[in-house]
């Protein structure tokens, strides 16, 4: 009897199927790495989280909090459970950390000005309203993308570069010059 050489069609099909499955799994894993997300991806994810917080507040009829930690480069969404003796945070969206190439550079509000450090908490009231803010994303200190969140809009408005919302007076160049002067004072 002669020894068989090569692989049969079924064996080749099985090998190709296994290779395809392994490649698909590797591609899926690479996409999930935080370091591979671009600023545009981060801006879109931030806008979706903002929209989610607004809808959660409207649906539940309770205040929902969108919390951003500027130094830690993450954000989360929670509501307060006041059914017990002590109010307790109930997480709705776990902390989401930005990729290593991106950061929360600053948050600008018509009511509070520009905030570069600390923790910022936006309450979404039962009707879905919150304070109007603009969030600057980029590799600190450069700003690549601005995400505007108008007070009554359903989702954020994503723009390239550093821009101000329409509700804030002033020229963008004037604001940048003011920030440069403030940095020189320190």
Automatic annotation (TrEMBL):
The keyword Transmembrane helix applies. InterPro entries: N_methyl_site, Pilin-like. This is General secretion pathway protein H. It comes from the Bacteria. Residues 175-186 have a biased composition (Basic and acidic residues). SUPFAM superfamilies: Pili subunits. Residues 161-174 have a biased composition (Acidic residues). Keywords: Membrane, Transmembrane, Transmembrane helix. The keyword Signal does not apply. Residues 161-186 are annotated as: Disordered. The chain crosses the membrane at residues 12-30.
């Amino acid at each position: 009897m002669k020894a068989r050489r090569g692989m049969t069609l079924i064996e080749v099909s099985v090998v190709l199927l296994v290779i395809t499955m392994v490649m698909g799994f590797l591609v899926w894993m690479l996409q999930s790495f935080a370091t591979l997300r671009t600023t545009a991806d981060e801006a879109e994810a931030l806008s979706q989280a903002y929209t989610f917080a607004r809808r959660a507040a409207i649906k539940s009829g309770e205040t929902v909090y969108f919390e951003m930690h500027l130094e830690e480069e993450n954000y989360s969404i929670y509501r307060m459970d006041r059914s017990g003796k002590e109010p307790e945070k109930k997480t709705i969206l776990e902390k989401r950390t930005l990729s290593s190439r991106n950061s929360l550079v600053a948050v600008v509000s018509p009511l509070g000005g520009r905030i570069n450090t600390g923790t910022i908490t936006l309450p979404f009231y039962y009707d879905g309203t919150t304070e109007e803010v603009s969030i600057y994303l980029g590799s600190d200190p450069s700003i690549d993308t601005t995400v505007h969140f108008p007070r009554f809009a359903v989702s954020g408005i994503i723009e390239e570069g550093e821009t101000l919302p329409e509700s804030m007076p002033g020229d963008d160049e004037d604001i940048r010059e003011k920030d440069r002067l403030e940095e020189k004072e320190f």
